[in-house]
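Lab notebook, design round three. We kept the backbone fixed and only want residue identities now. Task for the bench partner: fill in a sequence for the structure below.
Input structure tokens:
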């Protein structure tokens, strides 16, 4: 599949679904950085209120874990092409090293496999160089849970994403 970016309107709708639909994501200031046909990249802007240890200036691991989870979830919506409710079943985070201090953090995720009821995702987190991640994640998500979808069911992703069926 082509890895070209989506149009700006599609990006805006997905950002509303992931960032504004989830109050915690909004409070952290998560923002979309890039969306392609197969991946989603979100950014967690550096903010002193999110620092875990004031002596180091490194963002708290919980904020980074939330960024990983949100980005993984966004990649599931990209793969689904439909606004279904989802829930994180499992999220494994491996911190390969501590993130650099006083810097924005980026996460890129790809939903690489879907079944009728579960989505499988992998992601990496970095600061300056995507090829030098400081964390990696593997996640699974339940599909069609009892929660709310992040967009009305009358808003099919296919028309928004302008992707072939």
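Proposed sequence:
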């Amino acid at each position: 599949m082509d890895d070209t970016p989506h149009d700006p309107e599609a990006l805006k709708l997905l950002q509303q679904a992931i960032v504004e639909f989830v109050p915690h994501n909004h409070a952290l200031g998560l923002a979309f950085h890039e969306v392609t046909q197969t991946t989603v990249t979100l950014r967690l802007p550096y903010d002193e209120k999110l620092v875990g240890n004031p002596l180091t200036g490194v963002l708290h691991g919980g904020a980074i874990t939330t960024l990983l989870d949100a980005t993984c979830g966004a990649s599931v919506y990209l793969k689904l092409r439909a606004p279904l409710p989802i829930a994180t079943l499992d999220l494994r985070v491996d911190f390969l090293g501590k993130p650099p201090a006083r810097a924005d953090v980026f996460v890129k995720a790809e939903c690489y496999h879907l079944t009728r009821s579960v989505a499988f995702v992998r992601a990496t987190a970095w600061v300056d160089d995507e090829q030098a991640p400081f964390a990696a994640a593997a996640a699974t998500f339940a599909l069609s849970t009892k929660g709310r979808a992040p967009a009305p069911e009358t808003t099919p992703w296919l028309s928004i994403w302008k992707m072939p069926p």
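Keep this in mind before ordering anything: The helical segments are 8-20, 23-28, 61-80, 157-161.
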